[in-house]
Amino acid sequence: MKTLPLRLQPGQDLRAALAGVLADQGAAAGFVLQGIGSLRGARLRLAGASDATEVEGDIEILTLAGSLSPDGPHLHMALADAAGRVVGGHVLAGCTIRTTAEILVALLPAHRFTREPDAASGFDELVVHSHDG
C-alpha cells in the first residue's frame, strides 16, 4: 500500500478530482481513508433515494471515505452546515471545494478494481482483482 496525502484547492469539484487520482498515479485501485475540509454547496444521494439532495451554503466535511476504481469513485461523506445540522450520503458531482479539502488516499498496487453489474443489488458493484494470484 502506498499512501498519498492530497490537498484540493478552492473551486475544484471533489468527486472529479478524486476520479482522476488513479490515472494520475498510474494505479488501478485505491481507497479514500479519510477527508476533511469545506465545501460551497454539495450534492448527495441519500440512502434509498434516486434523486440528488442539494446542500446549499458553506458546509464542513466531517468525514469522507470510499473506493477508487478506473470505472469511477464510490464515495460517502458526512457534512455539517453552519447551524450544525449533519447530513450524509453518496457523493455526486457538484461538491465544490470552498477553502480546502485534506484527503488521505491509499493506493493498492497489487490490486485492480472494477465495477460490474450485480444481480443482487441492481447496481454496478466493486469487484476486486488481485495481481498476485
Summarize the structure.
This protein is mainly beta. The protein has helices at 14-19, 21-25; strands at 2-8, 30-45, 53-69, 72-80, 86-91, 97-107, 111-117, 124-130.
Key traits:
DNA-binding, single chain, two-stranded antiparallel sheet, 8 strands, DNA binding, six-stranded antiparallel sheet, 2 helices, DNA-binding protein, PPC_dom
Q: What would you note in describing this structure?
A:
With 133 residues, this protein is mostly beta strands. It has one domain: 60s Ribosomal Protein L30, Chain: A, CATH 3.30.1330. It is built from two helices and eight strands, in the order βααβββββββ. It has helices at 14-19, 21-25, and strands at residues 2-8, 30-45, 53-69, 72-80, 86-91, 97-107, 111-117, 124-130. The two termini are 17 Å apart.
How far the N terminus sits from the C terminus, by CA atoms, comes to 17 Å
CATH class: Alpha Beta
Question: Given the helix and strand composition, which structural class is it?
Answer: mainly beta
CATH superfamily: Hypothetical protein, similar to alpha- acetolactate decarboxylase, domain 2
Report the count of strand segments: 8
Topology as a string of helices (H) and strands (E)? EHHEEEEEEE
Q: What is the radius of gyration?
A: 15 Å
Percent helix range? under 10%
| Low-confidence sequence ranges | none
Mean pLDDT equals 96
Number of helices: 2
How would a textbook summarize the main sheet?
6 strands, antiparallel
Morphology: globular
Percent of residues in β-strands: over 45%
What's the CATH topology name? 60s Ribosomal Protein L30, Chain: A
> How many distinct folded domains?
1
Q: Identify the CATH architecture.
A: 2-Layer Sandwich
InterPro entries: PPC_dom (IPR005175)
Pfam family, one: PCC
Protein name: DNA-binding protein
GO molecular function: DNA binding
